[in-house]
Each structure stands twice: as C-alpha cells, then as structure tokens.
Design goal:
- The protein contains three helices and five strands; from the N terminus they run αααβββββ.
- It is α+β, with helices and mostly antiparallel strands.
- The protein has two domains: about 1-50, no CATH class; about 75-190, no CATH class.
- A five-stranded antiparallel beta sheet has the order 1-2-3-4-5, covered by helices on one side.
- It is elongated, with a radius of gyration of 31 Å.
- The protein starts with a helix and ends in a 9-residue tail after the last strand.
Length: about 200
C-alpha cells in the first residue's frame, strides 16, 4: 500500500509543479521502515552524494553567453533603419551605391565612436527605432541607453543642384561639436525628376 501512496505523491508533485521540481529522495527514505534493506544496498553513504545543486552544473554559465557584437548591436539595425527610410521607391534605386560607398563610411564612424566611448562592454549603445518621413533628414541616431543622449545623428538631405538634378547628401552630426557641424559621408545622384518622399 505504501508503494501506491509513494507513486501517487510523485505524480501529484510532478503535475502540480509541471515537472520543474522533483520530489526529494529524502522523503522516501523517511517513509521506509527502519529495517528496509534497500537503503543498505546503495553504494553512497552520505545523502549529499546524491544531491546535485545548480551550482554543480558541468558547464559554466559564462561559456554560453555570447560577447556583444558591433555587427548585431549597431551595424545591422543601422542598415535596417536606412532601408526603412528609403522605402520601396527610393531603396532599390540607390541600394547598390549606398551599400558600396556610404554604408562602409557609416560603419567606420560608428566603430570609432564605440572605441572612443570605451567599447560595447562598457557602454550600452543603441540605434533609434524610427527614421523620419516626408522630406525630413533623420535616418537614425546612435544613442547611449544609460543617459538617453544621442552620440551621433545620421541624416540624409535631398539637394537640388541647378542643371545637375537631385542628389542625396548623406552626413552625420556628432555630440563632440554639439551637433552643429555637417560631417559629409557622400552623395548619391537621384535624377532630374523630383524624388519621392521618404518611407514611401
């Protein structure tokens, strides 16, 4: 009868805790009669030999943690925000030149900022979530999550040049000069026709 009672208790504990907590084996040794010979058959003499804590795990927790990657944390989100701003009308036209000429310069500026601020291990840097639409300049900003302040502001301005047509001027502003200077990254030619609005 005791065996059935043990099985019922095991099943109840497993169902109630969804298998997260297993019943302690010490319960069963206390329920067994003192003259039960099964306990004598165990090669372990100490109850501590059977218990395994979380701190005794084979793998160190730090071995599973991936180091922060500038590619995943900043470069990939930056490119996604740029393409989001370009939309489906502008993006396909300027994509190749943007990838080959402009974006490597953006990566270089971001990398220099990460190095000058002490690295991703010491600063929590992030890319802003939404670029501006219409004809506004904002592509994305790199900001410090701890103090919630921008470090770099990447913009693209639509310029109409007489006789030449429309160009996209990519540039950035830096906290180092209080965002007053335009630091040019390059220009991409659109055409002589008026370009569509951003995000379209």
């Amino acid at each position: 009868m005791k065996k059935y009672l043990q099985n019922i208790i095991i099943a109840l504990v497993a169902v109630l805790t969804l298998g997260v907590i297993s019943p302690s084996h010490e319960i069963w040794t206390n329920l067994q009669p003192k003259d039960d010979t099964r306990e004598a058959d165990h090669p372990c003499t100490s109850k501590h030999d059977l218990q395994l804590g979380l701190e005794d795990s084979i793998f160190d927790r730090e071995s599973f943690e991936q180091p922060l990657s500038i590619e995943d944390e900043l470069f990939r989100p930056a490119k996604e925000m740029a393409y989001l701003k370009f939309g489906t009308k502008i993006g396909p036209v300027i994509q190749n030149e943007f990838d080959d000429v402009i974006f490597p310069k953006i990566e270089e500026v971001i990398q220099n900022t990460v190095i000058s601020t002490g690295g991703l291990e010491n600063r929590m840097l992030s890319i802003t979530e939404f670029p501006s639409g219409d004809y506004a300049e904002k592509m994305f900003h790199v900001s410090d999550r701890e103090n919630k302040k921008d470090l770099i502001r990447f913009h693209v301005r639509t310029e109409k040049r007489p006789l030449d047509g429309y160009f996209y001027n990519f540039h950035y502003h830096s906290v180092e000069d209080d965002f007053t200077m335009h630091h040019s990254l390059g220009d991409i030619y659109w055409s002589k026709n008026t370009p569509p609005k951003w995000l379209s």
